[in-house]
Design a protein that fits this description.
Blueprint: H1 3-18, H2 21-41, H3 52-81, H4 84-89, H5 95-123, H6 132-159, H7 163-168, H8 170-175, H9 191-197, H10 201-215, H11 221-248
Helix pairs in contact: 1-5, 2-3, 2-5, 3-5, 3-6, 3-10, 5-6, 6-10, 6-11, 10-11
Length: 249
Protein backbone atom coordinates (compact mmCIF):
# COMPACT_ATOMS: atom_id res chain seq x y z
CA UNK A 1 0.00 0.00 0.00
CA UNK A 2 1.25 3.50 -0.84
CA UNK A 3 0.65 6.77 0.99
CA UNK A 4 -1.66 7.75 -1.87
CA UNK A 5 -3.86 4.73 -1.07
CA UNK A 6 -4.38 5.97 2.48
CA UNK A 7 -5.15 9.50 1.23
CA UNK A 8 -7.77 8.12 -1.15
CA UNK A 9 -9.13 5.90 1.62
CA UNK A 10 -9.47 8.96 3.85
CA UNK A 11 -11.45 10.74 1.10
CA UNK A 12 -13.92 7.88 0.79
CA UNK A 13 -14.28 7.43 4.55
CA UNK A 14 -14.99 11.15 4.98
CA UNK A 15 -17.77 10.81 2.43
CA UNK A 16 -19.24 7.91 4.39
CA UNK A 17 -18.98 9.73 7.71
CA UNK A 18 -20.82 12.70 6.21
CA UNK A 19 -23.57 10.29 5.23
CA UNK A 20 -23.68 7.62 7.96
CA UNK A 21 -27.06 6.47 6.68
CA UNK A 22 -25.06 4.30 4.25
CA UNK A 23 -23.84 2.08 7.08
CA UNK A 24 -27.23 2.21 8.80
CA UNK A 25 -28.99 1.17 5.59
CA UNK A 26 -26.61 -1.75 5.06
CA UNK A 27 -27.22 -2.93 8.63
CA UNK A 28 -31.01 -2.56 8.59
CA UNK A 29 -31.86 -5.44 6.24
CA UNK A 30 -29.75 -8.09 8.03
CA UNK A 31 -31.02 -6.90 11.42
CA UNK A 32 -34.65 -7.02 10.24
CA UNK A 33 -34.04 -10.52 8.85
CA UNK A 34 -32.54 -11.56 12.19
CA UNK A 35 -35.52 -10.17 14.11
CA UNK A 36 -37.98 -11.82 11.73
CA UNK A 37 -36.40 -15.27 11.83
CA UNK A 38 -35.72 -15.32 15.58
CA UNK A 39 -39.06 -13.95 16.81
CA UNK A 40 -41.41 -15.16 14.06
CA UNK A 41 -39.95 -18.34 12.56
CA UNK A 42 -37.43 -19.34 15.21
CA UNK A 43 -39.89 -21.33 17.33
CA UNK A 44 -40.77 -23.55 14.37
CA UNK A 45 -37.20 -24.24 13.23
CA UNK A 46 -35.31 -27.09 14.87
CA UNK A 47 -31.55 -26.51 14.87
CA UNK A 48 -30.44 -28.20 18.07
CA UNK A 49 -29.47 -24.90 19.73
CA UNK A 50 -30.98 -23.31 22.84
CA UNK A 51 -31.23 -19.89 21.19
CA UNK A 52 -31.91 -19.64 17.46
CA UNK A 53 -30.00 -16.34 17.21
CA UNK A 54 -26.81 -18.27 18.01
CA UNK A 55 -27.42 -20.51 15.01
CA UNK A 56 -28.56 -17.69 12.74
CA UNK A 57 -25.93 -15.01 13.41
CA UNK A 58 -23.08 -16.25 11.12
CA UNK A 59 -25.35 -16.21 8.08
CA UNK A 60 -26.70 -12.77 8.99
CA UNK A 61 -23.13 -11.43 9.16
CA UNK A 62 -22.39 -12.73 5.65
CA UNK A 63 -25.63 -11.21 4.41
CA UNK A 64 -24.60 -7.84 5.86
CA UNK A 65 -21.24 -8.02 4.09
CA UNK A 66 -22.90 -8.90 0.79
CA UNK A 67 -25.27 -5.94 1.20
CA UNK A 68 -22.29 -3.64 1.74
CA UNK A 69 -20.79 -4.80 -1.55
CA UNK A 70 -23.48 -2.92 -3.47
CA UNK A 71 -22.17 0.35 -2.03
CA UNK A 72 -18.62 -0.53 -3.10
CA UNK A 73 -19.86 -0.89 -6.67
CA UNK A 74 -21.85 2.33 -6.35
CA UNK A 75 -18.87 4.33 -5.07
CA UNK A 76 -16.67 3.04 -7.90
CA UNK A 77 -19.35 3.76 -10.50
CA UNK A 78 -19.86 7.28 -9.12
CA UNK A 79 -16.14 8.09 -9.29
CA UNK A 80 -16.07 7.04 -12.94
CA UNK A 81 -19.23 8.89 -13.97
CA UNK A 82 -18.22 12.06 -12.14
CA UNK A 83 -14.89 12.11 -13.96
CA UNK A 84 -12.87 11.67 -10.75
CA UNK A 85 -11.28 8.47 -12.02
CA UNK A 86 -9.99 10.17 -15.16
CA UNK A 87 -8.68 13.03 -13.04
CA UNK A 88 -6.86 10.64 -10.70
CA UNK A 89 -5.17 9.03 -13.68
CA UNK A 90 -3.55 12.35 -14.60
CA UNK A 91 -1.94 12.53 -11.16
CA UNK A 92 1.24 10.76 -9.98
CA UNK A 93 -0.80 7.97 -8.38
CA UNK A 94 -0.23 4.26 -8.76
CA UNK A 95 -3.32 3.03 -10.60
CA UNK A 96 -3.97 0.10 -8.27
CA UNK A 97 -4.09 2.55 -5.34
CA UNK A 98 -7.47 3.81 -6.55
CA UNK A 99 -8.93 0.30 -6.48
CA UNK A 100 -7.35 -0.57 -3.14
CA UNK A 101 -8.80 2.58 -1.59
CA UNK A 102 -12.31 1.43 -2.52
CA UNK A 103 -11.67 -2.10 -1.25
CA UNK A 104 -10.25 -0.90 2.07
CA UNK A 105 -13.16 1.51 2.48
CA UNK A 106 -15.47 -1.47 2.07
CA UNK A 107 -13.46 -3.37 4.68
CA UNK A 108 -13.74 -0.55 7.24
CA UNK A 109 -17.41 0.24 6.63
CA UNK A 110 -18.40 -3.43 6.72
CA UNK A 111 -16.48 -3.86 9.98
CA UNK A 112 -18.61 -1.09 11.51
CA UNK A 113 -21.77 -2.76 10.20
CA UNK A 114 -20.74 -6.13 11.66
CA UNK A 115 -20.18 -4.53 15.08
CA UNK A 116 -23.69 -3.03 14.92
CA UNK A 117 -25.20 -6.42 14.01
CA UNK A 118 -23.27 -8.10 16.84
CA UNK A 119 -24.58 -5.54 19.34
CA UNK A 120 -28.17 -6.16 18.26
CA UNK A 121 -27.60 -9.93 18.48
CA UNK A 122 -26.32 -9.49 22.05
CA UNK A 123 -29.54 -7.70 22.95
CA UNK A 124 -31.46 -10.62 21.43
CA UNK A 125 -29.65 -13.15 23.61
CA UNK A 126 -26.58 -14.08 21.58
CA UNK A 127 -23.89 -15.67 23.72
CA UNK A 128 -20.62 -17.35 22.77
CA UNK A 129 -18.13 -19.61 24.50
CA UNK A 130 -15.35 -18.59 22.09
CA UNK A 131 -11.91 -17.68 23.39
CA UNK A 132 -9.73 -14.85 22.09
CA UNK A 133 -8.07 -16.96 19.39
CA UNK A 134 -11.47 -18.14 18.18
CA UNK A 135 -12.68 -14.54 17.94
CA UNK A 136 -9.54 -13.58 16.01
CA UNK A 137 -10.16 -16.47 13.61
CA UNK A 138 -13.77 -15.31 13.12
CA UNK A 139 -12.56 -11.77 12.44
CA UNK A 140 -10.01 -13.11 9.94
CA UNK A 141 -12.61 -15.14 8.04
CA UNK A 142 -15.05 -12.23 7.93
CA UNK A 143 -12.24 -9.93 6.79
CA UNK A 144 -11.23 -12.28 3.97
CA UNK A 145 -14.85 -12.70 2.92
CA UNK A 146 -15.25 -8.92 2.84
CA UNK A 147 -12.11 -8.51 0.73
CA UNK A 148 -13.29 -11.22 -1.66
CA UNK A 149 -16.72 -9.64 -2.18
CA UNK A 150 -15.22 -6.14 -2.35
CA UNK A 151 -12.94 -7.09 -5.23
CA UNK A 152 -15.90 -8.82 -6.84
CA UNK A 153 -17.92 -5.61 -6.44
CA UNK A 154 -15.23 -3.56 -8.18
CA UNK A 155 -15.89 -5.39 -11.47
CA UNK A 156 -19.53 -4.25 -12.03
CA UNK A 157 -18.59 -0.85 -10.59
CA UNK A 158 -16.12 -0.47 -13.44
CA UNK A 159 -18.13 -2.16 -16.18
CA UNK A 160 -21.73 -1.05 -15.55
CA UNK A 161 -23.37 1.70 -17.58
CA UNK A 162 -26.00 2.57 -14.97
CA UNK A 163 -26.10 2.73 -11.18
CA UNK A 164 -28.72 -0.02 -11.17
CA UNK A 165 -26.40 -2.27 -13.16
CA UNK A 166 -23.52 -1.55 -10.79
CA UNK A 167 -25.48 -2.57 -7.69
CA UNK A 168 -27.68 -5.38 -9.05
CA UNK A 169 -24.87 -7.95 -8.81
CA UNK A 170 -25.18 -8.01 -5.01
CA UNK A 171 -28.77 -9.28 -4.96
CA UNK A 172 -27.92 -12.95 -5.62
CA UNK A 173 -25.11 -12.75 -3.04
CA UNK A 174 -27.45 -11.37 -0.39
CA UNK A 175 -29.87 -14.26 -0.88
CA UNK A 176 -27.24 -17.00 -1.28
CA UNK A 177 -27.27 -17.68 2.51
CA UNK A 178 -30.89 -18.85 2.19
CA UNK A 179 -29.67 -21.88 0.21
CA UNK A 180 -27.03 -22.85 2.75
CA UNK A 181 -26.73 -23.96 6.36
CA UNK A 182 -27.20 -20.36 7.52
CA UNK A 183 -30.89 -20.63 8.48
CA UNK A 184 -31.62 -24.35 8.72
CA UNK A 185 -29.51 -27.54 8.72
CA UNK A 186 -28.87 -28.77 5.19
CA UNK A 187 -30.07 -32.26 6.23
CA UNK A 188 -33.65 -30.96 6.12
CA UNK A 189 -33.43 -29.94 2.45
CA UNK A 190 -34.44 -31.96 -0.65
CA UNK A 191 -31.52 -33.88 -2.15
CA UNK A 192 -30.84 -31.63 -5.14
CA UNK A 193 -31.06 -28.48 -3.01
CA UNK A 194 -28.91 -30.05 -0.31
CA UNK A 195 -26.24 -30.97 -2.87
CA UNK A 196 -25.96 -27.32 -3.91
CA UNK A 197 -26.18 -25.98 -0.36
CA UNK A 198 -23.40 -28.20 0.95
CA UNK A 199 -21.02 -27.34 -1.88
CA UNK A 200 -21.29 -23.58 -2.08
CA UNK A 201 -19.02 -21.13 -0.23
CA UNK A 202 -21.53 -19.70 2.25
CA UNK A 203 -22.14 -23.07 3.95
CA UNK A 204 -18.45 -23.69 4.56
CA UNK A 205 -17.92 -20.17 5.90
CA UNK A 206 -21.04 -20.26 8.10
CA UNK A 207 -20.11 -23.68 9.51
CA UNK A 208 -16.57 -22.51 10.29
CA UNK A 209 -17.75 -19.35 12.07
CA UNK A 210 -20.44 -21.25 13.97
CA UNK A 211 -17.92 -23.86 15.13
CA UNK A 212 -15.48 -21.18 16.28
CA UNK A 213 -18.16 -19.29 18.21
CA UNK A 214 -19.83 -22.22 19.92
CA UNK A 215 -18.12 -25.58 19.44
CA UNK A 216 -14.39 -24.83 19.53
CA UNK A 217 -13.55 -27.52 16.95
CA UNK A 218 -13.81 -26.53 13.31
CA UNK A 219 -12.31 -29.52 11.53
CA UNK A 220 -12.00 -29.09 7.77
CA UNK A 221 -14.61 -26.32 7.59
CA UNK A 222 -12.11 -23.58 8.32
CA UNK A 223 -9.81 -24.71 5.50
CA UNK A 224 -12.73 -24.90 3.09
CA UNK A 225 -13.85 -21.44 4.19
CA UNK A 226 -10.37 -19.98 3.74
CA UNK A 227 -10.00 -21.67 0.35
CA UNK A 228 -13.28 -20.21 -0.88
CA UNK A 229 -12.45 -16.72 0.38
CA UNK A 230 -8.91 -16.64 -1.00
CA UNK A 231 -9.95 -18.27 -4.28
CA UNK A 232 -12.77 -15.78 -4.91
CA UNK A 233 -10.54 -12.87 -3.91
CA UNK A 234 -7.68 -13.85 -6.24
CA UNK A 235 -9.96 -14.47 -9.23
CA UNK A 236 -11.95 -11.28 -8.62
CA UNK A 237 -8.72 -9.26 -8.22
CA UNK A 238 -7.40 -10.51 -11.57
CA UNK A 239 -10.62 -9.68 -13.41
CA UNK A 240 -10.94 -6.31 -11.65
CA UNK A 241 -7.43 -5.29 -12.72
CA UNK A 242 -8.15 -6.40 -16.30
CA UNK A 243 -11.42 -4.45 -16.34
CA UNK A 244 -9.66 -1.39 -14.90
CA UNK A 245 -7.02 -1.47 -17.63
CA UNK A 246 -9.76 -1.90 -20.25
CA UNK A 247 -11.61 1.07 -18.74
CA UNK A 248 -8.53 3.28 -19.06
CA UNK A 249 -7.61 2.22 -22.58
Amino acid sequence: MTNKTWVLLGRLMRNIMRSPDTIITVAITPIMMMLLFVYVFGGAIETGTDNYVNYLLPGILLMAIASGGAYTSARMFTDIKNGLMARFMTMPIKRSSVLWAHVLTSLVSNAITIVVVFLVALLMGFRSSAEILDWLAVAGILGLFTLALSWLAIIPGLAARTMEGATAYSYPLVFLPFISSAFVPTETMPKFVRAFAENQPVTSIVNAIRALLYEGSVGNDIWLALSWCVGIMVIAYIFAIKQFKRQLS
